[in-house]
Write a structure and sequence with these properties.
Layout lengths: L6 H5 L4 E2 L15 E2 L34 E5 L4 E6 L8 E4 L4 E4 L3 H7 L3 E2 L11 E3 L5 E5 L24 E4 L23 E8 L13 E8 L18 E2 L9 E5 L17 E2 L7 E8 L10 E2 L9 E6 L22 E5 L12 E2 L17 E2 L4 E2 L81 E2 L12 E2 L2 H8 L16 H6 L8 H4 L20 H4 L19 H14 L8 E2 L9 E2 L16 H4 L20 H45 L10 H20 L4 H34 L1
Parallel strand pairs: 3-11, 14-19, 16-18, 16-22, 18-20
Antiparallel strand pairs: 1-4, 2-7, 3-4, 5-6, 8-9, 9-10, 11-12, 12-18, 13-17, 15-21, 23-24, 25-26
Helix pairs in contact: 10-11
This protein binds a DNA duplex (12 and 13 nucleotides) through loops.
Subcellular location: Nucleus
InterPro entries: CRC, Lin-54_fam, Tesmin/TSO1-like_CXC
Keywords: Nucleus
DNA sequence: GAGTTTGAAACT
DNA sequence: CAGTTTCAAACTC
């Protein structure tokens, strides 16, 4: 699996327009995203795995949401409609191999495939989703200009679907494209701080076990169109996500209530739970359908709270290699399976729906990002069970492999519940998630088969992401550290899907470092955690700081480490054990005070006996907080009036100041050097010749000195004051330098002309 | 870098 | 819940 790059968010338009009409786009379209054709052996219609009969649609509706994206997949083709797309600048690539959608894939990749690169552009809002035609013809979905201004919100409550302007285009120029079914109701409401964008792509349930792929992406954008990746706050989820799968039930509904803008993604037939993370974090959820599942998926209800400005990405993948189709909940000329729907903010409608079919391969590669905690994401295994779903339509049916770019979810996840329906529940203030500019991204990737362990989401480490375990109808969870996704940003070489035939999108490298919301990745990423040195705990006990902080071990010095995705099963068990022992084991020990840091205190208090609580053995002291009444320490010197503590603090402050000064000095020096190099660089590059100072030969130097001496004599003869004399000399020196530089330039020009 | 100290976590 | 053991980080030399 490929990880979505941070720019994926940027790709999402602020506004998405629904389109019902399909327009053919010339093959020469330059703005089209590259689509890779995926040969589909499966002539049968790819359908959702979880629901045999009814297609599932996921819809997210938020009072504050401003953008809506909808994707529909009909038997004959795949249709994606989006609304509010504003910023689509990154290439969007679909990889046939894994049925994955790759976002931000480098253009070179597309070029390699021999297909024209697909680019989603914000301006034209042309491309949203591409599918690969069965015939090998890529399909390009194109969105016409909405005319709406980005960031412009419509009056809340406006559920009036916009006119579908979404275009589906095949590379070969044929209009075989699938009718855009189901008009996405586009509801735009005024965003207080951010705008929500959700894109949902629903796919019809495959008749055969062939891989139905569903892909849901929701995205939240602030008023500036920036996407924020933020850790999940450990808040209670008030909303519920309902993903129950029933052959009888045509639709699945996930309801999310959020007072603020939010985005939610749900995957039909799969369960996705997003657990609360650190407040500013965002979560990306990717669910993968199990290849072997042939039965209806278990219904799961997930209460979900979406934080303001947070973004959620849910990706559902079917394991089968069959072509993926996207179908909207609305009727189309073609058979469409029921789709799961997710309603947010109590607003009904298909708004903010994004379903993206993904490759079914559950390959997972460990990606770790320092500093963050687990994201709790509950992934629902898509069942590939043979469903009553309509057989694949005409030859136009196109298998689709999609890997999406990074998705952000800022939704605390409540323990999943088996609920068929979730009533829209307005988010309470308590459920609010604070949105920050943090750019961390979360990715949920397929996990190895997991035992039926359903950790208490409320107690999971912040930032944990649960990935579905492949299996028939089984819902597995893979707890993925929030850093997982972030690491992708930092480590472009890491791919989520090892099996993916696609090379890791190189675009992630550069894109990952692109400033998001004015902050660079480095700025927004917490500092790397110290590597652990565990030898006996397998990094699966709280002794291990990595594990205790909900992180995978990365670049650690540990031995026999099980704190990675390769040992997800063991890891899950360990987490469960810890939670059984202490439900708050993964919660931060240092609780934030109500008012500032002064109120911060250790949740349990320390038990120091010999350190006087003035060494880092003491967790209170280590956290730079004073011991409190709940501490059981002996001989504590870590209190306000403690002279020892003050002395240590002063020393520490002084040391810190020195370090900062040194750092600042180094930074300044480095900057100066860089600036100098930058100034000289043009000379080098332009002329390719010698630098000006290389012309300062001995003769030139002597001549310069003579000029300066002459100037000094002149000042002396004219009885100029010393200051004036110095000024004259310096001025002359400046002239000399200018002449040297000028001569150097001329010499280079002459040389260049001669060479020519 | 090796050894010691320390206190949280785990265990009984 | 208390006592003991285990463990890895912090610390010292």
């Amino acid at each position: 699996m490929d990880v979505v790059s941070p720019e994926l968010n940027s790709l999402l338009p602020d506004e998405i327009m629904d389109t019902e009409a399909i327009e053919d786009v010339p093959h020469s379209q330059t703005d089209v995203a590259t689509v890779k054709e995926e040969p589909s052996d499966d002539t049968s219609v790819p359908m959702e795995t979880d629901t045999p009969v009814a297609a599932e649609s996921l819809s997210l509706s938020m009072a504050t949401s401003t953008a809506t994206t909808k994707t529909t997949d009909s038997v004959t083709g795949t249709t994606v409609s989006t609304s509010g797309l504003q910023k689509l600048t990154a290439p969007f690539t679909i990889s046939p191999a894994n049925h994955q959608i790759i976002l931000n894939k480098v253009a070179t990749e597309a070029a390699k495939s021999g297909t024209p690169p697909q680019v989603i552009k914000q301006e034209g809002q042309k491309l949203l989703v591409t599918t690969i035609g069965k015939s090998g013809q890529p399909i390009v979905l194109q969105l016409p200009h909405t005319g709406g201004k980005p960031g412009v919100s419509q009056a809340s409550g406006d559920v009036k679907p916009q006119t579908p302007q979404f275009k589906v285009v095949t590379i070969d120029g044929r209009s075989e494209l699938k009718p855009v079914v189901g008009s996405a109701s586009n509801q735009v409401t005024t965003l207080q701080a951010q705008q929500l964008k959700a894109v949902q792509i629903a796919k019809k349930t495959p008749v055969s076990s062939a891989a139905p792929i569903k892909f849901i992406i929701t995205k939240t954008v602030n008023s500036k169109g920036f996407l924020f990746l933020q850790p999940f706050p450990c808040h209670v989820l008030s909303g519920r996500v309902l993903t129950q799968n029933s052959p009888v039930m045509p639709q699945r509904t996930i309801t999310l209530s959020e007072p603020h803008s939010m985005s939610i993604q749900s995957i039909p037939g799969k369960k996705i739970a997003i657990s609360p993370l650190k407040s500013p974090s965002k979560v990306t959820v990717v669910s993968v359908a199990s290849p072997t599942s042939n039965t209806s998926q278990k219904s799961v209800a997930l209460p979900v709270n979406v934080a303001l400005g947070q973004q959620i990405l849910a990706v559902q993948q079917s394991t089968s290699a069959s072509p993926v189709k996207v179908a909207t909940s609305q009727t189309t000329t073609q058979n469409i399976k029921p789709v799961q729907s997710v309603a947010v903010g109590g607003v009904s409608g298909s708004q903010f729906k994004t379903i993206i079919p993904l490759a079914t391969q559950p390959n997972v590669q460990q990606i770790q990002v320092p500093g963050s905690r687990f994201h709790y994401v509950r992934l629902v295994t898509a069942t590939t069970a043979s469903s009553t779903g309509q057989p694949s339509g005409p030859s136009t049916t196109k298998p689709m492999v999609v890997s999406t770019g990074a998705v952000r979810m800022s939704v605390p996840i409540v323990p999943a519940q088996t609920i068929k329906q979730v009533a829209p529940k307005p988010l309470t203030s308590a459920a609010q998630v604070v949105t920050t500019t943090q750019t961390q991204q979360r990715l949920i990737m397929p996990a190895t088969p997991l035992p039926q362990i359903q950790p208490n989401f409320t107690n999971l480490p912040p930032g944990t992401v649960l990935a579905p375990a492949p299996g028939a109808g089984n819902v597995g969870y893979a707890v993925v550290p929030a850093q997982y996704v972030t690491q992708l940003q930092q480590s472009p070489f890491v791919t989520l899907a090892s099996s993916s035939s696609f090379p890791a999108p190189t675009g992630i490298q550069t894109q990952a470092r692109l400033p998001l919301n004015g902050l660079t990745t480095a700025e927004t990423t917490s500092r790397p955690r110290k590597p652990c040195n565990c030898t006996k705990s397998q990094c699966l006990k709280l002794y291990c700081d990595c594990f205790a902080n909900g992180e995978f071990c990365n670049n650690c010095n540990c031995n026999n480490c099980f704190n990675n995705l390769e040992h997800e099963t063991e890891r899950q068990k360990a987490i469960k054990t810890c939670l059984d022992r202490n439900p708050e084991a993964f919660k931060p020990k240092i609780g934030k005070g109500k008012e500032g840091e002064s109120d911060r205190r250790h949740s349990k208090g320390c038990n120091c006996k010999r350190s006087g609580c003035l060494k880092n053995y003491c967790e209170c002291y280590e956290a730079k907080i004073m011991c409190s009444s709940i501490c059981k320490c002996i001989g504590c010197k870590n209190f306000e009036e403690s002279p020892e503590r003050k002395t240590l603090m002063h020393l520490a402050d002084a040391a810190e100041v020195r370090v900062q000064q040194q750092t600042a000095a180094k930074t300044k020096l480095s900057s100066q050097i860089s600036d100098l190099l930058m100034r000289t660089a043009p000379v080098i590059s332009s002329g390719g010749g010698r630098l000006p100072y290389t012309f300062v030969t001995k003769e030139v130097l002597e001549a310069t000195c003579e000029c300066l001496l002459e100037q000094a004599k002149k000042a002396e003869h004219t009885h100029q004051p010393q200051a004036e004399a110095e000024r004259m000399i310096l001025e002359e020196f400046g002239h000399c330098l200018m002449r040297i530089i000028s001569s150097a330039g001329k010499a280079k020009a002459d040389c260049a002309s001669i060479n020519c």
